[in-house]
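Regression report. Comparing outputs from two consecutive submissions.

Submission 1:
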Amino acid sequence: MLKTTQDVATAVRHARKQRGLTQAQLAQRAGVGRDWLVRLEKGNPRLELSKVLDTFAALGLSLSIEAMPTQGPEPDPFAAVFKAL
């Protein structure tokens, strides 16, 4: 499960190495510069999402979204005010 930019960085780096690709090779396949890929693998939080997805595609990775379980309904911030009326 990916929760942070560092998790994304680790996943990309691991997948790249597992496939025996250099950063330059992956960058070329993804259509990005090597310096951009280096920033991705360092967990830079300010990278263009479309390029991150292009990099995932170049690695044969997919991304799915799953709702995280909540711990019940959020409390109504106005409940005490209305109760006092």
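Submission 2:
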Amino acid sequence: PHDRGAKFRVYERAGVRELWLIDPYGPAGTEFYQRQGDFFKPVMPDQNGLIHSVALPGFKLDTTWLWPEQKFILIRQALQQMGVD
């Protein structure tokens, strides 16, 4: 409740460009926001499950990494998928 209330408004007023509220139990409670003008607007992952960051140009968060059905991928694999050598 605090993250979606007082803290949310503080971040918005402070000019934070992007806010990810990630529920560790699954996607149902997860929300992504990006600044549009003076306010946060909710955004959804694209058709490939990616959130395209506005705070880190070129960075894409693969939301399938957040709640893997099997085990988490290795950091090295994640970096390769992001194009970092």
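Expected: both submissions complete independently.
Actual: both completed, but the second showed a warning that disappeared on reload.
Relevant detail on submission 2: Helices lie at 6-14, 75-81.
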